[in-house]
Structures are given as C-alpha cells and as structure tokens.
Amino acid sequence: MTDQENNNQSIDRVKSYWVGRSTGEYRCPNISLFRFLNAIGFKIVEKTILEVGFGHGADLLECKRRGGIVYGLDLNQQAIEDLSELNNSHKAIFRAGVDRIPFGTTFDFIYA
Asked: Cα–Cα distance between 74 and 85 in angstroms, integer?
C-alpha cells in the first residue's frame, strides 16, 4: 500500500467518526490551556488565534471573550453550523494534511 493510500484510509477513518457528529451542549473551555497561556505570559487580547479541530468551540469562544481575533477549522460541517457565535468567514471546513489553511492571515497562536 502506498503512502497516499494509507493517508486516504486515515482521512476516511477520521471522517467517518467526526463528520455529521453533533457537537452537543455547551462545554467548559479547557482551563489548562488558559492557565498555560497565562503562565508563559501570552495575552490573548488583539492576538490572532487559530484552533484546528474546534469541535464544540468552547476554547475558541473563550479566546474571543478574552479579546482575541479567532479563527477555527473543523472537518465536521455540523460543528461549523453549531458554532453560530462566530462569523462564517472565521471558520471553515478543513482536512488537516490535505487542505491548505483557507484564511489569508498570519496567526499569533495556533492550537489543536
């Protein structure tokens, strides 16, 4: 099996698990992420932030609440539709390792 075939199989497995899956109720943001950012002195205000695979979007929305300019990528259309609090231009369908990042900007912080 070629590397491309292996890559396609991996993409198909991930897609079959995540695509169409409901993101469900609101969930608490990852407290450890924000403690870490605070510990290293990273201030979110006016920083451009990208979350790859935002799922339910709690961390992304917390970054926005703290004054960040937020962008999100997810391979699940349902996640994108469920995250109605973000402008559509700041979230997009994305298959990591396959698609180019669709935003014409640079980022101060990228996390997954």
From this structure: 15
User: Which pair of tokens denotes residue 20?
Assistant: 């169409």
Whole-structure pTM value: 0.73
* Surface-to-core class of residue 33, CB atoms within 10 Å of its CB (0-12 exposed, 13-18 middle, 19+ buried): middle
Q: How far apart are CA 19 and CA 17, in angstroms?
A: 6
What string of pLDDT tens digits covers the 112 residues of the chain? 787 777 777 767 766 765 666 655 656 788 999 999 999 999 999 999 999 988 888 999 899 999 999 998 888 888 888 887 777 778 887 876 678 888 889 999 999 8
Phi, psi of 40 (to 5 degrees): -90, 0
Q: Are the beta carbons of 63 and 38 closer than 8 angstroms?
A: no
Neighbouring residues of 9: CB distance < 8 A, sequence distance ≥ 6: none
